[in-house]
């Protein structure tokens, strides 16, 4: 566990008894590659989902991850978006590329795979700004499509996690300033309602489970000294199916990595689950 991680609960000292699954909006896999390799080597998650890879498929640096033992699948796009799933010592088995429900949507925002007995969906949900407007409409439509897909995953009755950058601030407790974010698409009632519907369907918000009072951020803007002033908010989420939530033993944010040189504007988030379902 990283020394400055937020929101963690005590975990079993036996590393083999738990499995860490993480998410990191890397904000450019090539630009942040040293930071990404540093984080992977130091924290060693079994699975790492990446967003905003900002690389075409042929330019994705898979060989660099292979050098430290990670195999990868990815769905890239030139200059922006892009998602990837990395796994330590095992190849992710791809189950879905692109979010179903709109054949005209070619944005690289969704990738799904099976890893070590867990179905993992890596998402980069649209930002939606400026709102109102077509970008916000696209965000809300995307969230409805995501809900449909999550219903399909739910029906499988398997351990499943849908994790990544949701671009939604769920509640007032999840931002440093309600006033500063009041007009942002991330905090509009429609965005929040769409997120709450996912929870109402039975999914568990891992970070919120361990931080019910809020005040834990996953993103700090590069501007206005946001990091130095701790002006952040929580938009990177990990939603777990009951089959996985029942095995959760910890969750947190590797906050200190946001403070490193040439860091992403997001910090990695993670949760840990026991490798075997808890006994009755």
UniProtKB/TrEMBL annotation:
<keyword id="KW-0378">Hydrolase</keyword>
<protein>
    <submittedName>
        <fullName>Exodeoxyribonuclease III</fullName>
        <ecNumber>3.1.11.2</ecNumber>
    </submittedName>
</protein>
<feature type="domain" description="Endonuclease/exonuclease/phosphatase">
    <location>
        <begin position="22"/>
        <end position="266"/>
    </location>
</feature>
<keyword id="KW-0460">Magnesium</keyword>
<feature type="binding site">
    <location>
        <position position="167"/>
    </location>
    <ligand>
        <name>Mg(2+)</name>
    </ligand>
</feature>
<feature type="active site">
    <location>
        <position position="124"/>
    </location>
</feature>
<dbReference type="InterPro" id="IPR004808">
    <property type="entry name" value="AP_endonuc_1"/>
</dbReference>
<feature type="site" description="Important for catalytic activity">
    <location>
        <position position="236"/>
    </location>
</feature>
<dbReference type="InterPro" id="IPR036691">
    <property type="entry name" value="Endo/exonu/phosph_ase_sf"/>
</dbReference>
<feature type="binding site">
    <location>
        <position position="165"/>
    </location>
    <ligand>
        <name>Mg(2+)</name>
    </ligand>
</feature>
<dbReference type="InterPro" id="IPR005135">
    <property type="entry name" value="Endo/exonuclease/phosphatase"/>
</dbReference>
<feature type="active site" description="Proton acceptor">
    <location>
        <position position="266"/>
    </location>
</feature>
<feature type="binding site">
    <location>
        <position position="25"/>
    </location>
    <ligand>
        <name>Mg(2+)</name>
    </ligand>
</feature>
<dbReference type="GO" id="GO:0008311">
    <property type="term" value="F:double-stranded DNA 3'-5' DNA exonuclease activity"/>
</dbReference>
<dbReference type="GO" id="GO:0006281">
    <property type="term" value="P:DNA repair"/>
</dbReference>
<keyword id="KW-0479">Metal-binding</keyword>
<comment type="similarity">
    <text>Belongs to the DNA repair enzymes AP/ExoA family.</text>
</comment>
<dbReference type="InterPro" id="IPR037493">
    <property type="entry name" value="ExoIII-like"/>
</dbReference>
<feature type="site" description="Transition state stabilizer">
    <location>
        <position position="167"/>
    </location>
</feature>
<feature type="binding site">
    <location>
        <position position="265"/>
    </location>
    <ligand>
        <name>Mg(2+)</name>
    </ligand>
</feature>
<dbReference type="GO" id="GO:0046872">
    <property type="term" value="F:metal ion binding"/>
</dbReference>
<feature type="active site" description="Proton donor/acceptor">
    <location>
        <position position="165"/>
    </location>
</feature>
<feature type="site" description="Interaction with DNA substrate">
    <location>
        <position position="266"/>
    </location>
</feature>
<feature type="binding site">
    <location>
        <position position="266"/>
    </location>
    <ligand>
        <name>Mg(2+)</name>
    </ligand>
</feature>
<keyword id="KW-0464">Manganese</keyword>
<feature type="binding site">
    <location>
        <position position="52"/>
    </location>
    <ligand>
        <name>Mg(2+)</name>
    </ligand>
</feature>
<dbReference type="Pfam" id="PF03372">
    <property type="entry name" value="Exo_endo_phos"/>
</dbReference>
